[in-house]
Specification:
CATH topology of the largest domain: Jelly Rolls
Structural class: alpha+beta
CATH architecture of the largest domain: Sandwich
Distance between the termini: 51 Å
Oligomer: single chain
CATH class of the largest domain: Mainly Beta
Largest sheet: 6 strands, antiparallel, barrel
Helix content: 40-55%
Radius of gyration: 24 Å
Number of helices: 15
Order of helices and strands: HHHEEEEEEEEEEEHHHHHHHHEEHHHH
Strand order of the largest sheet: 3-8-5-6-11-10
Amino acid sequence: MTMVWDEIERLGRRIGEAWARTSRDEAAFAALSHEAVTRAEPWRTLSVEALAEAALEHDRVPVQTRFSEQFGEPSVVLFRGESFTIEVLFWVDGLVSIHQHRFSGAFCVLAGSSIHCRYRFAEARRVNAWLRLGALELAHAELLARGAVRPIPSGPDLIHSTFHLDRPTITLVVRTDADIESGAQLEYRRPSVAIDPRALTPQQQKRLELLQTLRAVRSDLYWPMVERVLAQGDLAEAYLLLHESRASLDDAGCQRILALARDVHGEALDGFVPSLADGDRVRSAMWLRRATDDDELRFFLALLLQVPSRAAILEMVGERYPGVDPVERVVAWVERIEVDGAPLIERAAAARWLALFRELVGGRTDRAEIKAALAARGLSYRNDFELYSELTALREIPLFAALTC
């Protein structure tokens, strides 16, 4: 294990010396750490086995901190410099939210691969320092293979997500302890919400936790307490209650909470509703991904989770699996998805449904052109309304929204 510690020690000292020459300017740290990691090429010598053994050494691992961040599965600090650390993060199934950072630095893929998406956010309404509404748009999407290194500027200069594909994926992160000028560490929920859930007061957090318990064991108390919390709480607390409840209540329950929240906050709540629906898409895709061991399907479902762009999805499919038409591969994957052991697409309707899906994924949007293409495949509709109905139904499936809308 001496090799691991020597490698990390050299990297840490090199970064510390370079940063000292800038008077430890936080604004310089992302570029200099990115350059240092790129030159060191740690992915060539730091294997999964060596890192795991090093992380378990009792007498060499530095003091571990930031337990509340829940970043990595797990994350382990291997070097502690003056106001910065070097960590390795192990990933298995973690869904990393779209977020910005209160620190700066760089990250590197040591093992496995990741989907990396960068976004921009156009703010339309500021509720407070840790809750905003606006438009979140994809700026760039890419596949990161072993050896990829990317800088991490703090604050809104990097709004991104990384979804780690392989089991395990291991990343190395060099980071400052905190950048004073970075502002709130916001999470972004497509398509419109920026929030820092950690900014809840302890009282707000405990109220939401208690409601979860009451929902599980005393439903007779749950609804009166929901009304009380909404009546006394602010807009952020209402949004987080709505967001959390979508994962555990049926449609009727979710609509009931939404109606109660509207009674209190009125139209101010409207900008948050689209992100609640997107949360349903995320949960369904995660559930499907965890239910399969098919590596190709897991990759496809990760793309549906992370990449809100048909063109970017097809480009990544072509990059990962060259030599096959990406559209045809996507259609074949959809045909293989199962829910509780049954095909997602009913066999009786599969031929026409998949043909229609193929046209949309291929970028065809004109109904007359779609109708002609299907007719060439021997598939017809009784009238235009029937075609319109099936197109609408297909486009309303949240899981496939990036590919069909």
